[in-house]
Amino acid sequence: MEPEEPVEPAELADAENLPAAVVQLLIRHGLTVATAESLTAGLLAATLAEVPGASGTLQGGVVAYQNHVKERQLGVDPGLLARAGAVDAEVARQMAEGARRGTGADVGISTTGVAGPEAHQGRPVGTVYVGLAGLPGHPEPEAVLLHLDGGREAIRRTTVRRALQMVQTRLTRSA
After folding, report:
1. Would you say the pTM of this structure is higher than 0.90?
2. Average pLDDT for 78-102
3. Where are the strands (E) in 124-174, listed by range?
């Protein structure tokens, strides 16, 4: 079982300014970023791109809703997808690494999970993995399991917020 990310109240209180804070942190650390998104379908990259100055860090993103896109564009192991399905910690790690490698970015962030309205591949609605690759102090790609509540849109938006919080927390701790 993958670790679940603790929610720190101070981070949640700053949710409105979170995208700008993450963009500023990435730029301050001299890091570029790319996304690989399944359940968020580009929402994470769009959220970063809404921040003025995001071009100083955001390299691009891949919307990999289908498994063949995960395989071809991100280099996710097809055997893994066949065995575990798309909603899996190792898939999230490989997606994040594939985004990083494919765009030449320093950091890769991935999202994969079940937004609903129904369970998928035996995983209940709200099961989400966020993958992170290339962050300072974290030499190996990692994946964090989230159990989220709400409807489809709420799960997608919460996933974006939590992914950004994870990047913010790790960059702040590595400073």
Report:
1. yes
2. 98
3. 127-133, 142-147
